[in-house]
Design a protein that fits this description.
single chain; mainly alpha; two-stranded antiparallel sheet; 3% strand
Length: 368
Amino acid sequence: MNAVTQTESTDFSLIDDLGDAPNESTAAAEHDDMLSPRFYTTDFAAFNDIDVSLVKDEWDEMMSEFEADANAKHFRRDAGYDREVNVANYDPALYDELLHFFISSLTSEFSGCILYADIKKNIQNEDVHKLMGYMSRDEARHAGFINKALKDFDRDVDMGYLKKAKDYTFFKPKFIHYATYLSEKIGYARYITIFRQLEKHPENKFHPIFDWFKDWCNDEFRHGEAFALIIRADPKLTQGRNKLWIKFFQLAVFATMYVRDHTRPEMNKAFGFDPTDYDYRVFDITLECCKQCFPVLLDINNPAFRSGLETLRKINVRNTAARKRGGIIGHLTQWGGKLQGVATFAKLYFLPTIKNPLPKKVRLKPIW
């Protein structure tokens, strides 16, 4: 099977309209649904007013690491990478899942790049201005590296078009803090869990990009550290009603990951993962990180929590099938599924949480 034939088998059927996107991969990145990465904008004036004086010693330590730029030469393909790439021989289902994984990951990385660059452009706060420049630099490298990997599929994402065409969601700064902190830390946990699995089972390394994950995930970890310090620099962000928002964002991020990961059975099989076990390993690492800045933590070992995530997964399976089927019955099934999903999410939200006393020292080391 040649690469062109395999590419033509890729399923973009759930994208309603390619519109003016220059290619299918860009259209997939532009598409928005409940599970797809989004682009964000925020209140720049509020970012300009951030005061990190309460955590200045740890902040300066972190900024020295950003300036040192340990991964300056990391995101480069070497001869070993190129020798190992032969996606034309992949099983069609694995091919499709990996392609969608790359597009989704690129969109997520590029989302961070744009947000951080926009914040930098619109503020004068020296501390935050420098930070956003460093983080935008890192995310641009990540997105560019994935885009090069997409060329092995005879595809790429037109990031210039995507920046202009994709819808942007406005988030208050505190929502940016909570959501971005979680996305960066869970990104670290995902990458390091995959890397450790392939250390133990190198025969399961079906693509060379996973060799890059160990150092790559340290960028994600450091980005999370930045937002942990921003959160801890303002005590109000971890008090009162904000605890409810912290709980909400934890649940939203974990539920999205759980549902999305279970849509990639062939990738999980290739890694040697059970997707549920993999997700809970990632959740464990993420929650250990969250102890640095979140006063409440999800109880992921509560049987009702696990049952609720499984219910959300089943709803997504039914809704995906209904969307493909179309027609009146398909639309009614989707609406029923959405209502059930909201009810299930609400039940999960009102489960008891674990109280977490915040440590005096905020920063962590990527020890996993």
